[in-house]
Batch of 2 targets.
Target 1
Amino acid sequence: MPPLELQDTTVSVRIKLAVLWTSVMFCYVYGDYFELYVPGKLQEMLQGNFLFGPVTQWALVGTAVLMAVPSLMIFLSVSLPPVVARWLNIGVGLFYATIMLLIFIGGAWAFYMLFAAIEIVLALLVVWYAWHWPRKPANVA
């Protein structure tokens, strides 16, 4: 009996985008979780210090919005019309790659830099897959 070959199937660009956004979110969660182990971080949080100043409701709302968008992109990538999903993924992917690039060049602990580098690559892959979204001939009546 000859060995069986593995069957490969084409994966929809929508699924690829959703999986990339899911990977980005896991990196965000783990990076932020590991950051809690940085000496002094928990004490700083307990004292009410945030990224750029004191903790306020609006600072947390802004951060929540910043983190909610990639979460929503998982769903939006598979549910929006293709043209809208394509351009939204390109725009949001570039935005988040830029944010992570600023964090990366701003310096941090090595683990956070590693996560930032991975997140940059993942966000740029979102942009690449969205930009290269497969096309078919338009129905001309």
Target 2
Amino acid sequence: MKTMLFPHSFQRPGWIIFTLSAVLGAVIIIQQNFDILPQSVTSQLYCHGYTVNNIAIIGIIIGGILATCSSEKIEDEMISSIRLNSLLTALYIHYALIIVASLLVYDLDYLNVMLYGMFTIIIIFMVVFRWRIWQMKKEEKDE
């Protein structure tokens, strides 16, 4: 069966891009809320604010796609089944969170929820998929 997954070699660069971009995004969010960085760094962030935000957003998306949509070293039907079930679980959780946020959050705060919502489905998928793969490998080791 033909799959649309990237080669396994794309997985490591994807994780690196995702991690660096997520750290950059976290620094931006923390700085906006708590103002903890030195003034010289803050002025650079504000000067290049849109560019830095875009780098973080695009990096998280591209890195996440490369990390999650790359095949495993051994890609069999069991891994494909786990991948599909993890994607469905992530989809259900993501939209449940969006529904709850729609009922509880209003005004400009809702815009922030939607911004973070861009990333939740891929992050939930990463967590669920890796956890299920870990469980499968643990069960194989126990037998």
